[in-house]
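Reopening: structure tokens for the iron/sulfur cluster complex, inputs below.
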Amino acid sequence: MLQFPLVRECPYAPPAEYTQIREDEPITTVRLPNGREAWVVTKHEHVRQVLNDPSFSADRLHPDFPNLAPAGQPIPRDDTARSMLMMDPPEHGPARKTVLGEFTVRRIAALRPRIQEIVDERIDVMLAGPRPADLVETLSLPVPSMVICELLGVPYADHAFFQANTAAMIKRETTVDDRQAAFERIRDYLEDLIVVKEADPPDDLLGRQIRKRRSEGAYERAPLVSLGFLLLVAGHETTANMISLGTLALLENPAQMHALRADPARTLGAVEEMLRYFTIVDTVVARLCTADTTVGGVPIRAGEGVLTLGQAANRDPDAFDAPDDFDIDRPARHHVAFGFGPHQCLGQNLARAELQIVFDTLLRRVPTLRLAAPVADLPFKSDAAIYGMYHMPVTW
Amino acid sequence: MTEATMKIVADLSRCVGAGQCVLTEPALFDQDPEDGTVVVLDEQPSGDLVRAAYDAVRVCPSQALSIEE
Ligand code: SF4
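Re-run output (same inputs, fresh job):
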């Protein structure tokens, strides 16, 4: 039986076993680090089915929930409030809807001018600095960090603190104590910040949520701390990794990069293709079956865990033609890189806007951008739950 | 099916407010400013918008959209 998690040998390809599983036995059992078994689901159709079926729970604090923490290591938890990530109906819908108004397509569109300013500032800094520059440090991390800090109303001056603690939380090798400590440091920080905002709620996401929840007679501090935590952590690491990997994909496919520079209208599609191609959040999307059911003809019973392998699904030839080709012009929007079903990424349209603006601006303002190291020497995050690059030396 | 007989149906109890429909075609869909759920602007589209309606059904993450023919 295959031992999970598997490691990406090549930044452009899923682990080789994914293709084999999908072709031979698309729903099969694997062994987790804690010794337990779980199902893996690899076909696009089946991944969408599992993620949209109420027979599967997202409650990752349930003792039977499949997780990839090394044996004996519990995942960090916060007993003061559950994040919406781990809620099921009927609890989940209202919790999500309370904040959805902040992430509608319209609201995100209104943020675009400010995102553009942030991206321009960061590129100014990069261009004024030494060559080669580390794209991760100068652009990939600061842009989403600044955007989410501003949206939430968290001082950007504290970003180094979040970045260090988030990185510690998602590294697979971090010990359980260190992981829990990192988690608690961010939570305590947010709690202090929210206490201050409660006195006179400012016009930022956290302040608006305080007002909104108070007017509905439902304000409690703990769920808001939990929400702030989720948005802060989810909002910068993932987008940062996609900025680095997306830039790499363009540099490595110069014809497509030139096509994009000539016609920025294609950026929208290019971003979807990057999301599909890299699927940086892959094994993290898991579920616990809570009612016997069948997926693709395979019976799955209550109590059994399922990993929905997004990267396998996003390379399923039944859903995407020539799935291993990077092609900015393909229709890719039905990918599952943001998940699927009721938990599909809340911040997806913010991520899209940031990525589109970054690539458009970078290609326009730094037309001679190139890698300053061979791809084989780039430090990929093979040891993290979210794929990406630790550093990316570039020059121009 | 003729265009005139199609109708977009949105199940608000299923909608998860991801806005994939609005991204697909803002002429057909909008979102409630408070809770992000879908607002169908034109239930009986015609011309190019017919295709967009089917695309939206395909990308909606919660199968909240369907088309009655
Ligand atoms: S795509 Fe589906 S879930 Fe998302 S807002 Fe539109 S109808 Fe709702």
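The two ends of chain B are 7 Å apart (CA to CA). The helical segments of chain B are 20-24, 48-59. Marking as resolved unless the reporter disagrees.
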